[in-house]
Specification:
The complex is a heterodimer. Chain A has 13 helices and 21 strands. Chain A is an alpha+beta fold. Chain A folds into 2 domains: about 110 residues, Uridine Diphospho-n-acetylenolpyruvylglucosamine Reductase, domain 3; about 220 residues, Alpha-Beta Plaits (2-Layer Sandwich). In chain A, the strands form 5 sheets. Chain A has an 8-stranded antiparallel beta sheet. A 5-stranded antiparallel beta sheet of chain A has the order 5-6-10-8-9. Chain A has a 4-stranded mixed beta sheet with strand order 1-2-4-3, with no helix packed on it. In chain A, helix 5 crosses helix 12 and helix 9 runs antiparallel to helix 10. The longest helix of chain A is centred in the C-terminal third of the chain and has 18 residues. Chain A starts with 8 loop residues before the first strand and ends with a helix. By secondary structure, chain B is an alpha/beta fold. Chain B has a single domain, classed as NAD(P)-binding Rossmann-like Domain (Rossmann fold). Chain B is built from 9 helices and 9 strands. In chain B, the strands form 2 sheets. Chain B has a 7-stranded parallel beta sheet, sandwiched between helices. In chain B, helix 2 links the parallel strand 2 and strand 3. In chain B, helix 5 runs parallel beside helix 6. The chains are: A alpha+beta, B alpha/beta. At the A-B interface, strand 5 of A face helix 2 of B.
């Protein structure tokens, strides 16, 4: 009873689809992580397992990087931080935001590792102005799986840097990351909520809001006809003490006590249906009262982090997230087609997020490009996969692509059509001898 | 009472790191002691950046028999000393290779006990302080699957109980910690039951609470107290037939 055996560990992404039994090693320091290699076992690093699909585990040895979470250097004058790849963003915020620093880019959960943020070149609600995370990365230290450790930056091994940023861990094991945080004057966000009755209005609001720091829309995918694209747009700015209520002005970095809830069990798979989600969306739309208010960073950036294990609401079969981007010129038509198809089928998608993205990132496999991105999630079952193939056709036709950090099911041809710089990525991998040495379930599926 | 300083013996382990972080969070200055201490620079940087505390590293080998010299060389006797060192070993190997068996015994019992004797004398003289020993539920009853490790931990548990008794009237507290399963490098890859498995940070928190509240023996997850009570009370005539 007290001496468990050492079987392979069942792993999945945050969507809990697909799953795979993997060999796992959990190095405790960078030297051990860099030394991990085996001629017969390809490597892939795994952070906190918050990518949705099959990017974070592999057919060979999966390196669990969470024990590498040290903050190695921080310059209080410039906000430049060097930390190990397994450092959670939540820890960086907990330590540095009270001192007036905030991540330059943050995804919709803070339970991601910095290594994962580089590998997925994550974007946030400020992409239209600030770019993606790797635009703020000064350098990374990368272990190439043969004992070599290289420092890559925009000036050093720039080709490997461009392949690594957004490269899904396929160019080596990120050991440390150096990036620049931004100064803030409080831990609060001045939020402005605007309702958009339809898609055209939502897009107009995004275009008119180009100067806002943060913007995002929750979109009701079950609304159809004249209501198609009905959404709530939430803008945000970092609050200055002047924005805060006089009573709290003296402590601009005070945080409310965390009130975390947990989903204790897998929901039955029937719990999310057209009716319940439609009801949720209607209530949510009503609850978002238009207007301005000051809120803490947590409810603004990370509403779902308040519910631990929220992925269990989709039941034991898991779910898939579908996030596409369409170029600006095809966005209106493409989004209309996508939303029409989703509303027609009536698949329950809880979390539907629409966002304007800014200019394309330098990373060869980075997802963001100028245009609109739509993110949806669906329970993993056959009807969903059939729907997603129809959505794929709309995305391909519009010249768009899917986000690898979310994807669990597209095939190689769609990757090639969406990511024209894939050939350069492959070439860099070959020139550093990385192809075959780093493999994930995702790279096998997509023939990368 | 919140300790002003803490010495972690075996600071490179996941539990050692977690204990250091928890004490540093309360503002305590930290001394990390481990083999190859020069490799702890990043760990020290982390503690300084996160908690703005003084943090130093010092060379330490639990089996070197140099405990007196080690404590003499410290600039100051810390308020709290936490002995984290342990070696799970491999039971079948210990049965075949007596050197391996003695290494397990020395690393889990004689080494830690000698170092804590040296610390205890100094604390008794000062009249204050706290000694924490990380023992194991494996020491609560010998079982075929790990009795070399378990017996050394049993010795260590008895040692800590005696030390607590001796120091009770000298203003020094002694905490015995039985973590149960912990998700660490030592157990990486094992399939551990989640309800019985603590994270290193939980162990750090439990030890910090025990020190500040003057606890005697703690099981990090309370369920282990019940489990071990059952295991201890199975009659030997039955127990010897079980495969555990």
């Amino acid at each position: 009873m007290l001496e468990p055996d050492r079987p392979r560990v069942p792993l999945s992404g945050w969507g809990r689809y697909p799953r795979r039994d993997c060999d796992v090693a959990a190095p405790g320091d960078p030297a051990t992580a860099a030394a991990a290699r085996s001629p017969s076992l390809p490597l892939i690093a795994r952070g906190n397992g918050r990518s949705y699909g099959d990017a974070s585990f592999g057919p060979g040895l999966t390196l669990d990087m969470r024990r590498l979470g040290r903050l190695v250097a921080f310059d209080e004058a410039t906000g430049v931080l060097t930390c190990e790849a397994g450092t959670l963003l939540s820890e960086i915020i907990a330590v540095l935001t009270p001192r007036g620093w905030f991540p330059p880019v943050t995804p919709g959960t803070k339970f991601v590792t910095v290594g994962g943020m580089v590998a997925s070149d994550v974007h946030g609600k400020n992409h239209h102005g600030a770019g993606s995370f790797c635009d703020h990365v000064l350098s990374v230290r990368l272990a190439l799986g043969d004992g070599t450790i290289l420092t890559c930056s925009p000036t050093e091994h720039a080709d490997l840097f461009a392949a690594t940023c957004g490269g899904m861990g396929l160019t080596g094991t990120v050991l440390t990351v150096t990036f620049r945080l931004i100064p803030v004057h409080s831990s609060k966000i001045l939020q402005e909520t605007v309702r958009a009755p339809d898609l055209a209005t939502a897009i107009d609001l995004f275009e008119a809001g180009a100067a806002r720091t943060y913007s995002v829309a929750w979109i009701d995918c079950l609304a159809s006809g004249a209501d198609l694209g009905r959404s709530v747009i939430i803008f945000g700015e970092h609050a200055t003490p002047a924005d805060i209520e006089p009573g709290q002005r003296a402590t601009p970095f005070a945080r409310p006590a965390p009130r975390r809830k947990r989903v204790p069990v897998d929901f039955p798979t029937v719990a999310l249906n057209r009716l319940s989600v439609s009801l949720f969306n209607k209530v949510y739309y009503r609850l978002q009262t238009p207007g301005r208010k000051v809120v803490d960073i947590d409810p603004y950036f990370y509403p779902l982090d308040a519910i631990q294990d929220w992925n269990r609401i989709y039941g034991r079969h898991g779910f898939v997230q579908y996030q596409c981007v369409l170029p600006l010129e095809t966005s209106r038509d493409g989004l209309t087609a996508l939303l029409t198809e989703i509303a027609r089928v009536g698949q329950a998608s809880f979390l539907a997020v629409l966002k304007r993205l800014g200019r394309e990132s330098f990373g060869y496999l980075s997802f963001p490009r100028e245009g609109y991105t739509l993110a949806l999630d669906f329970p993993a079952h056959a009807d969903t996969f059939a729907l997603l193939e129809r959505l794929d056709r709309i995305v391909i036709e519009g010249g768009g692509r899917l986000y690898l950090a979310k994807d669990a099911r597209m095939r190689a041809p769609m990757l090639r059509s969406g990511y024209p710089r894939l050939e350069r990525f492959d070439a860099v991998r070959r020139s550093y001898g990385l192809d075959g040495r780093f493999r994930s379930a995702l790279s096998d599926r997509l023939e990368i | 009472m919140t300790p002003s300083s803490v010495l972690i013996l075996g600071a490179r382990s996941d539990i050692g790191r977690a204990v250091a972080r928890r004490f540093a969070q309360s503002g305590a200055s930290v001394i990390l002691a481990a083999r190859r201490a020069d490799g702890l620079a990043d760990e020290l940087a982390d503690l300084r950046i996160r908690f703005k505390v003084a943090a130093e590293a010092i060379e330490f080998d639990v089996t070197d028999g140099e405990a007196e010299r080690f404590f003499d060389a410290l600039p100051e006797l810390p308020h709290t000393v936490v002995m984290v060192v342990g070696l799970l070993g491999d039971q079948p190997r210990s049965e075949a290779d007596l050197d391996a068996a003695s290494a397990v015994m020395a690393t889990n019992y004689t080494g830690p006990a000698c170092y804590l004797l040296a610390a205890a004398r100094r604390m008794a003289m000062r009249g204050s302080g706290c000694i924490v020993g990380i023992s194991s539920v494996a020491g609560d009853r010998g079982r075929q699957s790990n009795y070399v490790y378990g017996s050394a931990k049993a010795g260590f548990t008895a040692f800590l109980a005696g030390l607590r008794n001796r120091l009770f009237r000298r203003g020094v507290t002694v905490v015995t910690v039985k973590p149960g399963f912990v998700a660490t490098a030592m157990t990486a890859g094992m399939k551990l039951p989640p309800l019985l498995t603590a994270q290193p940070d939980e162990v750090g928190q439990a030890i910090f609470t025990a020190v500040t509240k003057g606890k005697d023996t703690i099981y990090v997850r309370p369920i282990w107290r019940l489990i071990m009570a059952v295991i201890r009370n199975v009659p030997e005539i039955v127990f010897k037939r079980l495969s555990m």
